[in-house]
Design brief:
Subcellular location: Membrane
Shape: globular
Structural class: mainly alpha
CATH superfamily: TspO/MBR protein
InterPro entries: TspO/MBR-related_sf, TspO_MBR
Number of helices: 7
Distance between the termini: 52 Å
Number of domains: 1
Mean pLDDT: 96
Number of strands: 0
CATH architecture: Up-down Bundle
Helix content: over 70%
Oligomer: single chain
Radius of gyration: 16 Å
Keywords: Membrane, Transmembrane, Transmembrane helix
Largest sheet: none
Pfam families: TspO_MBR
Family: Belongs to the TspO/BZRP family.
């Protein structure tokens, strides 16, 4: 397929660009700094590089899935995780609502895990590329839950 590199580029731009745009408009502020946080909270500077790498991987996986499994449950789950992913920061930082953000991140966690399961047989590489993302989202879910409980 001639346009394969363009598909990859489009997905990476969509995900990385969308993530950076949402991140730039939902920056942790005084409210976030005033919250009680668990001891396992990473430093703020770690989030941007971690998410940038993950967004690039998410874009690559989206392109792989689009090119090979476009009308599959895996593709629908890929889009679902992106919606949950992009909704979390506005809920948590924008609305200052850790409870709503908790519901969203649980949807994200479930959709990422379901994507791995749905794509495992047809595209094991895509499934495996989502494993670090699943680990990070599981960690972020624990962090969101701890912040919710502490505040």
């Amino acid at each position: 397929m001639k346009n394969k590199p363009l598909v990859y580029l489009a997905f990476i731009i969509l995900v990385l660009g969308g993530g950076l745009l949402i991140g730039a408009n939902n920056i942790p502020d005084e409210w976030y700094r005033s919250l009680a946080k668990p001891a396992f909270t990473p430093p703020d500077w770690l989030f941007a590089p971690a998410w940038s790498l993950l967004y690039t991987i998410i874009g690559v996986v989206g392109a792989r899935t689009w090119l090979t499994l476009r009308r599959s449950m895996a593709m629908r789950l890929w889009f679902a995780q992106l919606v949950f992913n992009f909704a979390w920061s506005p809920a948590f930082f924008g609305l200052r609502d850790p409870a709503s953000a908790m519901i969203i991140i649980l949807g994200l966690l479930i959709s990422v895990a379901a994507f791995i399961i749905a794509s495992w047989r047809q595209d094991r590489t895509a499934a495996l590329l989502f494993v670090p993302y699943l680990a990070w989202v599981a960690f972020a879910t624990a962090l969101n839950a701890a912040i919710l409980l502490l505040n």
